[in-house]
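Lab channel / #folding
Pinned by the channel admin:
"Please post every new chain as: sequence first, then the structure tokens as a reply. Keep commentary short and put observations after the output so the thread stays searchable."

First post following the new format, from NK:
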Amino acid sequence: MVSSRRIVVAALLAFSAACGGGTTTSNTNATSTAKTDDAYLQMAKDYVATVTMPGTPWTGPTTGPTAQPRKLIVYVSSDQRNGGPQGAGDGAQDAAKAIGWDFRILDGQGSVQGRTTALNQAIALKPDGIILGNVDTQEQAPVIRRAAMLGIKMVGWHIGPTPGPVTDPPVFTNVTTDPREVAKAAAMYAIVDSNGTANVIHFKDSITTISTAKTNASEEVFKGCAGCRVLETEDTPMGDLANRMPSLATSLLTKYGKQWTYAIAVNDLYFDFSAPSLQAAGVDPASGYPRQISSGDGSVTAFQRI
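Reply from TO:
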């Protein structure tokens, strides 16, 4: 895991936009002639310089209790197409192999029902423990409570808006960076890169509490940037981005044209599926606008684009 003070925000030079089925929140006062305060802009520059520094050596614990042998652990992924939970699952699988545990991965396939089904399948296996990979605790609260009542131990990765123990539904701990700090870094990056003139569209999936927390935190940052504007906030579910993003990109590009200079999404998947529309629009991958910033994990596809 990376420290919230060492978040590297990848600016992905691409377009994104909204299509049918999502929810749009628009800012009707989108044009600004105001100038961002010099002190605020300098603060943003200092912040970005800090969070994009190379990570420091590991300072956490290097010892712990002896692992118990012969355990069955099930990893329930929110969506194996998402590089975040996929990568966390790969790491958990490596650890289980080293310990000697039996390890299974179940894929929630990017939908609420898919995650519910995967969790129920995990419970049916009668495991010693379940690892929740980016499975929102509030979304799946009834199933998680049932697992806890059956005595199944659970830990999570990115399962809620704050790190540490989760009381309801009961999960031993949530291993995560602070999503609000990740979102702050993404917003500050746009402010610095634009020299305080960013016109932004946010993309979120309100099904998850982490997504909403990120978007709210990012919008708060832009309130301090007088020369910036949030044009819209698009609420578009991640489970259907492959179908939505081509027309999403075309739609907002038609609506805003060159006025739209930055897109900030809670996950790289929003940008992964916009390539056909970007190519059709003739966007220069090195210098084109809008520039896209993911306040997410950094998918394999995203790094390949960079």
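NK: The radius of gyration is 20 Å.
TO: also worth noting, The longest strand covers residues 229-235.
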